[in-house]
Amino acid sequence: MTTYANLHPKYIFGLNSSCKGTNCYFVESNQIIYPAGNTVAILSLDSKSQTFLHGAEKYRGVSALTVSANRVYAAIGQIAEKPEITIFDLKTNKKRKALQVPDQNVSEFVSLAFTSDNLHLGALTGAPDYNFVLWKWDRNRLVTTVKATGGSGPVYEISTSPVDNNVMCAVGNACFRFYRLNESHLKPYGFQRGDAHHFLCHAWYKNDKVIAGTASGTLLLFERGDYRHDIQIKNVKNEITGTLLEKKSYRFKASPTDAGLQSQIVQMKADPFERAVSPYLGTEITAITCCSKGFAVAYGVGNVIVFEEQSTYQSVDDHYKQLYVIRIPHDTSEAEDRVIKTLAISPNEEVIIATTFNCNIYSFSLSTAEIKEPEEMLFELANSSYHFGAILSLDCAIRKSLVVTCGIDKFIRVWNFLTMTQEAAREFAEDIYCVSIHPTGLFVLAGCVDKVRMYTILINDIRELKEWPIRMCKELRFSNGGHLFAVANGNILQTYSTATLENISSMKGHSNKIKRITWTQDDYKVITAGADGAIYEWDIQSCKRTADVVERGIQLISVVVAPDNKTHFAVNANKFIKEIQIYEGMILKELDLGLTPTSIALSRSGKILLAGFSDGTVRAFRQPLTYAGEWSDYRMHNAAITGLHCTYDEIFCVSTAADNSICFWKMTDAEGRVAKLEKDLNYATEILVTKQDLEERQVAINELQQRFGELKLEMDYALKRKDMLYQEEIKELNSKFTTEVARLSTDIAEITKEKEKNTVEYNTYLKEVAQQHKSQIENTEAHFNTKLISEFEKYNALQNLLESTIQEYEDRLIKLEADRSNAIEELIDYFEGKIKDKNSALEQAFNDAQAQMAESDEMKRQIEEDADQEILEMTTNYERKLRHERDMNAKLKGESGIMRKKFQTMQKDIEEQKNEVQRLMTECAKYNNLIKMTEKDVVTLQKALVDKDLAVANKDKHIAELMKTNSDLEKFKFVLEYRIRELRKLLEPKDREIIYLKQQNADMETELESTIFVRNGLQLQVSELKNKLRMTDQERNKEKRLRMRSLVLVERMRNYLTRAMSVVADHRALKHVVKAMYTKYGNATKADKAGSAEQEAICELVRQRNHLEISLTSVKRKLSKDAQFTRSEQLKIMHENLLLVYEINNLRRELKNARDRLNQYETSLGLNQASHATEAAEMRYKLQTAIEDRDDIDIAHENILEMKDNMIHAQQEEIDTLSTKILKVNEYILDTARPTTGMPGPAVDHIKSVLSSNAFQKLSE
């Protein structure tokens, strides 16, 4: 059964570094377009989804990109043998036009630009010509071509004016030119002194202004084609040189760094498998973009400076204000990687996009810039970070939906092919050649320059676990079960255990380096392919070679094994793919691929076979392989494929290339169906997290919670402050409102007077206008009646004339048609007779010629010369006759042409008559329209009268509404006055509360000062302990030296004793030796004894000092406990004070309620004006009967109030005494805590006596 796979691009990571100029644009407010690999991708910033421009992948890459002003069309400069510009419709993502430059040797297109009306497209060609080419692209017509360069260096970009379709601009090294399109020619105008600067970028601002940036960091402003002034950049640090850019003015001075850049920025070409070196020096302005209020500039290394135009300014330096600086975060170790190449602002001016030298895309929300601190003004990745340079290796996990890659940028990145996101990334200090991910997706093997390392994939990091000393390893692979992994150590295959991380075996058989390692699905065997052309199969258990296929002289690229472990597919540098039976040692099939393969991949089921090639093509083969070479090619990369792998579920295919792009393909069968997932195949979601990370995260959470509490308190305080400010504003508004009400009342009075006056004048004027209009209407009706009669008579006359003319022309037309048909018939008869005559003459001449030819044949033998002469004469005669006949035929054709022209002229006359009839009919229609318009004028005049009446009525209504509004304002004034009184009543307790909080704040400040003093004491104690430790170390070293000296003396004395033992028999010699030993070491022993006595004195001194320090620390500890006890007692007092204040407020509230009830009683008794006389009499009677013992109740109430007032005064006095004592205690504690020699006993006793006073006993009770 044959199978066939179709590949559909699903997602691509990467930014094409070969695209010159601006390589990122906004298509919508949340969509950007940029080149990736060999195609152009459109990315949604919200959902992170991608779409592609269909057909862009058919070429060899993208050299330039632009989007029209209305964001409907996109133009792409394609790299090919003959470069081409392709225009796409962004609504349908389909190709519209293809443009080429005829009769010119164009290497590439480096910049493109649409005009503002989207009808013309400008293009800048590459070196060495740098021509400015202009097309009318919708008609595929080349308008003009002009040479854009003005100096020796390159030209970088072109642009068109946003308001004038005929104005263009080009910038480059020693080149800054304005062009105007005039009569299909581009002519330079305006500023012509660009040779003093190295311009890198420019942008149009506010219709006719251009802002240009140079390699020396200068911003130049041009207006209407002329230079105006410089725009200053202030206080931005150069991260390459470390200098700070201050306020400078260049004013047309060439920078010494211009020669260093020259054409490197555009023409920089390097090996795709080596990291590109940045040509920037950190002082360049590399990109500019504009918005409605200002513009943004990319300066130096990762700095975007936002400027705002000022409407009023005193000098040119203040014309544009530098608002803030947005920076690219430090993602890599190389500072040059953060140099910005492109800037773009969204249509709603809320998001700014930046692309960098290391092919990353960043975004920043401009709407949040005002609320962020300067250190928070950082770009964020628009999607995820990409590789910079070639991607060297690729591998897929089995139990998790993860893919791991490594590149020449020294990064290892982990991708998720289900969510299309980047899970983890880390940069290393050394080069990484290959990677392999564990089937569980938790570990990564990496082959580095000097070692092979195993890393652990954590939640947001990649950490080293183990390393092995294997140099320059470029191939390694985990087994399918993950319990083993194989490493290529040159031409030796080494296997390791994942559990013990130890070497299990080493197998040698290749004579050259191993290029590829592949495990069988059961992990019992491993297959290796070497540069020597050999494919070996190794048994893991016996560590022996079980099968091989060797083809010497052929360089193998890669090999894969089928699920049956018998069939192998291999590709080599000779552009062949081979199907091999390794156990039989034979090649079953061999196909010529036509391209140089770089990798090969086979799905888990063996149904899908893929190969990658050096030009970026991915090829899907029909399985099993046929000799016809049935395959399908797909291309999303523009460089060599470096990695190709099918996922375990056979739904996706992943390819990597040397152009830093990673493409995820969705695989389907010939009918477009995706492979069915197995029931037990569920990707794991577990991740590894270290305990330290969890603890750090918990600490961070606690700190954030504490910070949240502090911010909440600060916000509450700020809200209270705002409430106070708002109250003051309310007072001001009330005062303004009262004055405004008074002014409005006076204005209303004046308006009423003026209204009465205007009504009288208007009534008189209305009567006059009515009379005038009545007379005008009568005159108009009489005039138009007479005019209608005359026009109707004219219309009847013209109608009769039209009918007679039509009848006449119809008769003439019939007559002309009859004459034409007769003339044609006569001509046909005449020419047919002529043709018959000529045919008969020709037949007769032919017969005569035949007879003469027969006679000449009979006489040929006798008179050959005479016959030749006669034949020549006859041929000339017949040629003359034939020429004469041809002339006659041409003459007849001319006569027929003349007749045809006459016929055409007659038809033209007929058409002219018809046009005349049509003109008369149009004039008649005009007169009819004129009559209708006159009738409409009459109707409009009548409507005008009605409208004026309605206007008078509306004015009356408006005056009535103003009167009503005035009354409502007076009512609102009364309500506001009442609310003001109520708010004043509410402000009084708030003021008292503020005073209390201020007092509490002062108390807390004093407590903070005491805490600071205690901290200083602790710091002093730490310093003393450090000194003590240093002294102890010195004494220990001294004792060590003394011990060494004693050991040396003992050894020497032992030597003397040994010598003395040798001369024991000789008494004189023994005496001499003993005496010498005494004279030499006796004095030293005394000195040692003296030193030991001195040492003992020092030790005694140290012991006494330690004793004093211990006593001092105990006293300090006791003092701190006492201070803590004092602070707790102070807090208790404050708490009781708050309770007392709360009770006082309750008492005041009860007093207020009592007063309100008293007012109600007075109202009921008729003491107030609000009560009625009858109701008051009834209430008095009821009151007299109800409360006969009123005097007793009043006396009891007054006694209760007096007792509570006495309690309040007593508690207030007690609070005052306690607060004074607390202040005294705090002052005394602070005074006594300052000395470091310890606290004397009387001070402690004094504190205890104060703390044990009656007031504190009462407080504790």
Automatic annotation (TrEMBL):
Residues 694-721, 792-866, 903-937, 1015-1042, 1137-1164 form a coiled coil. The keyword Coiled coil applies. Keywords: Coiled coil, WD repeat. The keyword DNA repair does not apply. It comes from Orchesella dallaii. Pfam families: WD40. This is Cilia-and flagella-associated protein 57. Signal peptide: none annotated. It comes from the Eukaryota. InterPro entries: CFA-57, Quinoprotein_ADH-like_sf, WD40/YVTN_repeat-like_dom_sf, WD40_rpt. WD repeats lie at residues 507-548. SMART domains: WD40 (SM00320).
